[in-house]
Amino acid sequence: MKADALDRLRGTLLGEVLGPRDAGYDTARRVYNAMIDKRPAVVAKCLGTADVVHAVRFAREEGLPIAVRGGGHSVAGHGTCDDGIVIDLSLMRGVHVDPVRRTVRVQGGALLGDVDRETQLHGLAIPTGQMSETGIAGLTLNGGVGMMLHKHGLTCDNLLSADMVTVDGELVTASADSRPELFWALRGGGGNFGVVTSFEFRAHPVGPMMLAGFLAHPVERAEEVLEFLRDFNATSPAHLSADAVFTHAPEADFVPAEFQGMPLVNLLVRYFGPMEEAWEAVRPLREFGPPLYDSMGPMPLVAVQSMLDPFTPAGNLHYWTSEFVPCLGVEQIDALAALGRDLPSSLTSINVHPFDTAATEVPPDATAFAHRQDSWLIHVICQWLDEADSERCRAWVKEAGALLKTFGLGNTYLNTTSEDEETDRVRAFWDERRLARLAKVKAEYDPDNVLRFNHNIPPATGESAVGERATEEPAS
Ligand SMILES: Cc1cc2nc3c(=O)[nH]c(=O)nc-3n(C[C@H](O)[C@H](O)[C@H](O)COP(=O)(O)OP(=O)(O)OC[C@H]3O[C@@H](n4cnc5c(N)ncnc54)[C@H](O)[C@@H]3O)c2cc1C
Asked: Where is this region: Disordered (predicted)?
């Protein structure tokens, strides 16, 4: 970049522009996972859509590749890059609820907690993830798995429209009626197509009170717990979410002192239906075992959605993997129990989520999100504090991932992978036919692959493209 380039960008942005010589650059370049240490040429903290347009145009003039940062939670580090521009939306966290239409407009840098705070004022919620500090943008564009999956599907299944700035700086709207191919691609195709400045979601009446908590069992009983969860899940109410979580009991108020630090398999239970039915709905879960301790109790939805935050603070070292497995049979349960008894650090967890009902009832071709099969999502979250443990922890996760693959569906959930996930495995998520369709949308909206810090979809070549940009008016 020429010496005066940053000043030129500063002149066009209301937000902040930080280069390597600026105080604040080191904070601005940091992302959630401390394993990721990238040095962008510039971080543009945008204050609105116009800032995004100017930042994108600047990137094109300077020939800089673009990384887009929403909430910064990508464990693969996709929200930053070396030597390019980071278009950082962390100042764009506005949420506007229309309680009559039950729709919610969310800016591209909003966190899940921002969304819950505003929607809950109206007794509404969007199905999102399970921690309050994750960005809505990255989560939605690659799917969005949380406690309402059974009842309301993935986050992207609840998307109604998205406003996006293209890599040429054009503002477009994608919805079922406007640029339908782009709308299809944004629901599972990741951050490949442009910078999404706002999302419009369908919301559902939920809360404000829910029943939630942990039912803790000794890890020695993991096989029984997983069998119980499998059988219970087959007929459980749609408003109930129950996952198994292998972890060490944290030093937290809800954990009796004698169990703190103990390896456990927990049932993480959340019931978000009518409160008068709640205790009866969770009764079989509470009676099983009995648990070592039971922290179930009524809580506001916003508290439930942030109760896991203290266990995964920003700045730890992370390496993750995941795999969809078709069923919890003897082979799968034995393998998961063995992994769960051998966690490589006290902060590591393995989450076993049922993936079914509403999420699998969406027709497979309705969105770019490719996995619509009844299954279990096994998510290995390895985190540690000391760099000296990095090699050992990564090796453990790689081995765990290889084991999961032996009985998995060959599909991973792309929001939960690490930076070196094999390209073949990423491609396999979308399958060749879907990938060809995504590549055409990519060719239309980002033919030069300027947005390549993501699970990248190379643009189609040849006749390429889907032709919807030429035929439609730009959004007003
Ligand atoms: C602690 C923790 C908890 C999590 N819990 C869940 C969970 O419960 N459920 C779940 O499904 N996932 C969960 N995830 C995974 C999460 O969905 C991904 O990490 C996701 O990428 C986070 O989005 P972000 O905006 O915070 O990420 P960022 O790092 O900011 O962005 C990641 C990528 O998303 C794209 N992107 C981001 N913003 C935009 C935008 N505005 N326009 C275009 N592209 C954009 C870009 O490609 C970017 O590189 C969790 C992650 C963490 C770290």
From this structure: 456-476
Locate the ligand 1 atom nearest the alpha carbon of residue 164 and give its number. Answer: 42
Instruction: Tell me the residue type at 95.
Output: V
What torsion do the CA atoms of 137, 143, 144, 145 make, to the nearest 10 degrees? -170
Other Cβ atoms less than 10 A from the Cβ of 114: the count is 20
Which of 57, 88, 119 is at the close of a domain?
A: 88
**Which residue has its alpha carbon closest to ligand 1 atom 46?**
191
275-284: long-range contacts at Cβ-Cβ below 8 A with a sequence spacing of 24 or more? Answer: 275/209, 275/210, 275/211, 277/237, 278/210, 278/211, 279/211, 281/211, 281/236, 281/237, 281/239, 281/240, 282/211, 282/240, 284/232
Tens of pLDDT, residue by residue over 273-328, are 999 999 999 999 999 999 999 999 999 999 999 999 999 999 999 999 999 999 99
219 and 188 part of one domain: no
Residues 200, 338 within the same domain: no
Which residues constitute the domain of residue 72?
5-88
Closest Cα to atom 9, ligand 1: which residue? 129
Q: 453 C-alpha vs ligand 1 centroid, how far in Å?
A: 13
Instruction: Identify the CATH number of the domain in which residue 43 sits.
Output: 3.30.43.10
476 pLDDT tier (thresholds 50, 70, 90) = very low
Q: How are beta strands 293-294 and 209-218 bridged, if at all?
A: antiparallel
